[in-house]
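Hi team,

Filling in the usual template for the complex we talked about on Friday. All components are listed, including any nucleic acid strands or ligand strings, so the model treats them as one assembly.

SUBMITTER: L.P.
PURPOSE: interface mapping
COMPONENTS: two
RESIDUES: 729
SEQUENCES:
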Amino acid sequence: MQVPWNFRFGIVILGDSSVGKSSLLHRYTEGTFDESRQSPLGIDFKVSNMYFDPDVVIKLLLWDTAGQERFRSICKSYMRNSVGCILMFDVSQRQTFDRVRSWQQEVLDYVKPNPMFFVLVGHKCDLAVGRQVRKSEGDALAKKLNMLAYLEVSTKENINVKETFETLTRGIYNLFQQGKIPTRGDWQGLTVGATVQKESPVTKKSACCNCG
Amino acid sequence: MATDNRIHFWRRNPKVPGSLQPVYGAQHPPLDPRRHRLLKDAPKVNSLNTKSKKPSTFHEFARSTNDAWDIDDEEDDGIFSLKQLSSSPVQSRSMPQTPCLKIIKTPEDTEALPPSLDRQEPISTNPIQDRLDMGSGPANGRVVKSSSEAQLNVNAARNTLQKQQSLPVRPVIPLVARISDQNASGAPPMMVREKTRLDKFKQLLASPNTDLEELRKHSWSGIPREVRPVTWRLLSGYLPANRERRELVLQRKREEYFGFIEQYYHSRTDENHRDTYRQIHIDIPRTNPLIPLFQQPLVQEVFERILFIWAIRHPASGYVQGINDLVTPFFVVFLSEFVEEDVENFEMASLPLDTQRNIEADSFWCMSKLLDGIQDNYTFAQPGIQNKVKALEELVSRIDEDVHLHFLKCEVEYLQFAFRWMNNLLMRELPLRCTIRLWDTYQAESEGFSHFHLYVCSAFLIKWRKEILSMVDFQSLLMLLQNLPTIHWGNEEVGLLLAEAYRLKYMFADAPSHYKR
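RESULT (copied from the run log):
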């Protein structure tokens, strides 16, 4: 392992086709917005390290999935090895919002008995016209479905991108510290790595830091 | 499970061989003249054929799978046997009974393979390689580059080479342009070999009944650009071998396609088709996003119609992301018939309406033929892909244990990278010009898209073994596998890949326990 990490979280990004899953991830890991990208097929993978509480390094394994129904069986194996989920819809496409509930249910059914923690993302919030889902609706749904948060995000305008990943990671981290997430040997969703030390052994921090 | 799977993939249910055929798809192992003649002389008599009763495993395999290519032209066998006998230089030499076994003995022995590479040399399409060759001078023992682009590229090449030294990033190469890079017709000095090759194709194509076996044999190592469109139509089974019937068939099929459009295309807004159309509509702008040609509304509409009609005619799979990419090579190849040079920036609207329609219909039918063979890749739960990925794992574990164990160690699963390789026939891993070259062979090889592809994937994976083994953890390994550096690839790399795939297929296709540890 190149960078010692204290925790490793599997994170999966889900939602209907073309709600902007890949572009959100691309913005987060590469820092750019690229409209002309090919749709992912099956699964794409990225890695990012997040630095907390001066000495905690959390490695995020980020899985970007294809939204089309037919790929669901492929994507399931990634859900199983994830602890967090960024569930996205497009605020300008009402039907993508309507399907959030069934997405969540499907994921929870599938990962049982392991836990999965969600943030709900209303994407393309920069669109001034054509919005079909109000912010209050997103807030209410996230609360109702027991999600960690609802965020309105624009990848294009770089609004709330970093915050999405931080909110989810922080939320999971806190829950873990409170003893609310059990770890299992055969579950890769949340893995404990190097022991957290007061004197940080990590020297290469800045190189991979996306949130510093 | 693994065992079932292996059996499914490596050991084909032996069909009753209705027609004995010589092995094509591989020039590398020269055909045994005696065996070949025997086959040719008595194509329908199999019960008395003692030699074919104990064929090599490869022959058995090829015979049991070649039927897929029998496109109602079996009656031609007799006619062409003579021609084949006289035209093949191999025939006069005395060859051992089972030449394949003798020639390809060990994994290290690749000497049997170069002939095909050699043959495709003159049609190099690799601008970078061309450029590099310029630098190293013509005295490298190869056929002198005859492509006019090569000359045009000299200056660019020098500049590029200079730049390359300072820039870490490779220069951007046109993805489509020089797709094939053979001389466009009329271009200056065509090398003798290249010309002979082209002549051979022309001769085959001009004959009253094109000998499809011969055509496949020659196509395996690459099809010259100017005859590629018609050759693809023939190899895919869209055009009949009988020359007189072709025009009629084309006309009928094209009319049939536009009949579908008239009858069904309006239904894209209907309740039951709305989602299909929506998905297609979303994906089309994301198809080849970097190539201007595909951003033209006219071209996007062509793709939408083709995909929608295909999807509603194939409800078991419907439209699945990735299928959109599979239209591209056909479209580009059929379009290239009417474009002198820069396909990438060609304005589709400048073509007569009839021509546009013909390209569309032909693309539809050829894509349909392709998908017929791999539809289980796209049905519910995608069993075709799941099985192929498992078969890939199985194969790699036998041919390169180091790589396989390294995957295990890094906890990388084959599905994590190879899903896309199967779902998209490596199109996302290779530049488009390479895909087109690859498809020359896939269409020449029996079950090329559905079966041979597996060996190509294996060869492709092993090609990167050094890089793979140098990655120390899950993340770096997976990142490598998702972004393999093939941007500079051209015909030569694809040729090598195919030769290696052929070798693997020969060694492992019908030998489940071969090399098993």
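MY TAKE: Chain A has one domain: 7-192. The helical segments of chain A are 21-30, 72-80, 94-98, 100-111, 135-144, 161-177, 205-208.

Thanks, L.
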